[in-house]
Amino acid sequence: MTESTEGKQIPGRFKPGQSGNPKGRPAGARHVALAALDAIGSDAAEGLLKTVIQEARNGDMTAARIILDRVWPARKGRLLTFTMPKVESAADASKAIGSILEAVAAGLLTIEEGQGLSTILESQRKALELTEIEARLTELEKGIRISL
Predict the structure, then answer these.
(1) Nearest to 118 by CA among 134, 133, 103
(2) Helical H runs in 32-89?
(3) Alpha-carbon distance 129 to 16, whole Å?
(4) Angle at 27 between CA 23 and CA 30, to 5 degrees
(5) What is the mean pLDDT of residues 46-75?
(6) What is the residue extent of each domain of the chain?
(7) Is residue 93 within 8 Å of 122, Cβ to Cβ?
(8) Which residue intervals of 58-110 are DSSP H helices?
(9) Which residue of 29, 92, 95, 125 has the lowest C-beta tally within 10 Å?
């Protein structure tokens, strides 16, 4: 059987926004073990970097990849250029999705790029649809108030 805690707490014991332990660890303070690990890491970082650079110069491709991945990270996307109709209403979204489908079929966009754009369009369609519904509801409410 579970016991209810309702009514057992002393009312007003802690004020909203006040810590239950005002003498506790200050905000932003780090645990001692983490601070020690950071110190060890910062002491060893320079030596490790020099070793990795030297290994890369000696032809170690893994070491070279470690360095190059930090200097020139892989691009996550590309600039897309294709014609898409302007979307100003929920109905326009269908035309825009059609243009994305055509671009994928023609090889101008990858399937993943088409899916990403379609997701964005779906979000915009929902927002536009909600705006249209809100406007219609406001008009209906005005009509009800006038007739009362």
Answers:
(1) 103
(2) 32-57, 61-71
(3) 40
(4) 100
(5) 87
(6) 32-71, 90-147
(7) yes
(8) 61-71, 90-105
(9) 29
Cβ atoms of 96 and 125 closer than 8 Å: no
Q: Which two tokens stand for residue 24?
A: 């506790």
Assigned token pair, 1? 């059987």
Give me the chain's average pLDDT, please.
Answer: 83
Residue type, 104: V
Q: Which of 83, 93, 84 is nearest to 132 (CA)?
A: 93
Q: For residue 75, what are the contacts with CB-CB under 8 A and spacing of at least 6?
A: none
Contacts of 109 (CB under 8 A, 6+ apart): 80, 82, 100, 103, 117
Contact criterion met (CB below 8 Å) for 100 and 109:
yes
Backbone angles phi, psi at 31, to 5 degrees: -65, 145
Residues in the chain: 148
